[in-house]
Specification:
The protein is mainly beta. The chain has 3 helices and 12 strands, in the order βββαβαββββαββββ.
Length: 208
């Protein structure tokens, strides 16, 4: 398992900047870190190498969480990050946005906005049925979903109406356009999953 450095963060919102050619560049502003190393896992003890990162401030913690975070701030979010070299880290170490540099590529992982129960036109982009030729109530319906005799059932994976959004989404290879260590702010080109204030994980890109 290769080391993939990353941080937990919070989506602030979208904006735009002008590049050196005067062209508009859409950006997403992210509050990235500071993150605390709250636990170190090793192959000898846990079966794999990883570090646990903590981010955000919790108003209150239960007793087990207070014991786990003894000597650390009351952290709201805890996530594990696999690594092949745990010797680089120690419990209590602080990681901040200076981990990233302008121009490099990152992957951003978050939970997309929930859209509830959606039909096939919204969920999958279906064209829908004809609006004329005697049609009265089939305009946004999917049409036939399977054969009557062969195979005799609806195939698994058929695109149909159902729950849309509220799923883990990874957007890859976003370019870092701004890093502000003093304010713990990172800006990337393009959009990222989720609503403002949503939790994000930002890591150095796997596919360059």
């Amino acid at each position: 398992m290769a080391t993939r450095e990353g941080l937990l963060g919070r989506k602030i919102g979208m904006s735009r900047i002008f590049d050196e050619r005067g062209e508009v560049v859409p950006i997403t502003v992210i509050e990235a870190g500071p993150c605390y190393v709250t636990q170190i896992k090793t192959v000898e003890k846990d079966g794999y190498n990883a570090i646990q990162l903590g981010f955000g401030t919790a108003k209150r913690l239960n007793a087990p969480s207070r014991g786990h975070l003894k000597g650390l701030p009351p952290l709201r979010h805890l996530r594990e990050l696999r690594t092949d070299d745990v010797t680089r880290y120690k419990v209590g170490q602080v990681l901040d946005v200076s981990l990233f540099k302008v121009g490099e590529r990152v992957d951003v992982i978050g939970v997309s906005k929930g859209r509830g129960f959606a039909g096939v036109m919204k969920r999958h982009g279906f064209k829908g049925g004809p609006a004329t030729r005697g049609q009265s109530d089939r305009q946004r319906h999917p049409g036939a979903i399977g054969a009557s005799n062969t195979p005799g059932w609806v195939e698994k994976g058929r695109r149909m109406a159902g729950h849309m959004g509220n799923a883990r989404v990874t957007v890859q290879n976003l370019r870092v356009v701004m890093v502000d260590p003093e304010r713990n702010v990172l800006a990337v080109e393009g959009g990222v999953p989720g609503a403002p204030k949503g939790l994000l994980f930002i890591r150095k890109a796997i596919k360059q």
